[in-house]
Design brief:
The chain has 81 residues and is an all-alpha fold. The two termini are 20 Å apart.
């Protein structure tokens, strides 16, 4: 996403961050700013940056309020949309 991303946090946080980055890129969101613009109610730009670099795990409520879970499902089945 944009510049080279340095992942932080535990192994679980890094794995989730990598997953979020992969999903974001698969739906055309290649920068933190684009993610924050697409999902403004879920989190601020700085909070999205923390989720996407592994500094924080994305909360379930944030995941549920966004269409990430649907994009992730489409990604895992090979569907686009």
């Amino acid at each position: 996403m944009g510049r080279k991303r340095e992942f932080k946090g535990t192994a679980a946080q890094q794995a989730m961050a990598r997953f979020l980055v992969d999903v974001a890129e698969s739906i055309g969101l290649d920068t933190t700013a684009k993610v924050a613009e697409r999902f403004p109610r879920a989190a601020s730009r700085s909070t999205w940056a923390e989720y996407l670099n592994g500094a924080k795990l994305i909360p379930r409520t944030c995941w549920d309020r966004s269409s990430w879970k649907y994009a992730a499902g489409a990604r895992s089945t090979g569907a686009r949309g």
